[in-house]
Write a structure and sequence with these properties.
The chain has helices spanning 2-7, 42-55, 81-91, and strands at residues 12-22, 26-35, 64-67, 97-99. It is globular. A four-stranded mixed sheet has the order 1-2-3-4, with helices on both faces. Strand 1 and strand 2 (26-35) form a beta hairpin. 26% of the residues are buried. By secondary structure, the chain is an alpha+beta fold.
């Protein structure tokens, strides 16, 4: 669901979702994104997170967005989930990853 929402954004060429451990939530959503048409910076990351918050429950929006040049694919061009775990571990904590958890505050209606 998160991948399909992000894939509809005009600045997302391709996306894959994984999870990372989080003290508060247990697991946090981590989106690996190949950007299109705009520089991959904190502004784009915040825009994409807000896009998700408008279209998904707040807890489904990515807490982290990492921009990559390519995603690991299988021979049939599907996301290689096994290699995604390794990619996320490599990216987590790097300058290509933006921590967006503060944007995910639950609002009470």
């Amino acid at each position: 669901e998160v991948e399909s929402v992000l894939a509809r954004h005009p600045n997302v060429k391709s996306v894959a979702i994984g999870a990372v451990p989080d003290r508060l939530r247990g697991d946090e959503v981590f989106a690996c994104i190949i950007a299109e048409g705009q520089s991959a910076d904190v502004e784009l990351a915040e825009t994409l997170c807000k896009w998700c918050l408008e279209n998904l429950a707040y807890y489904k929006a990515p807490g982290y967005i990492g921009f990559v040049e390519e995603l690991p694919l299988t021979s049939t061009n599907k996301i290689n989930r096994g290699k995604m775990t390794a990619l996320i571990e490599t990216l987590h904590g790097s300058e290509k990853v933006f921590d967006l958890r503060p944007l995910k505050k639950r609002s009470v209606a």
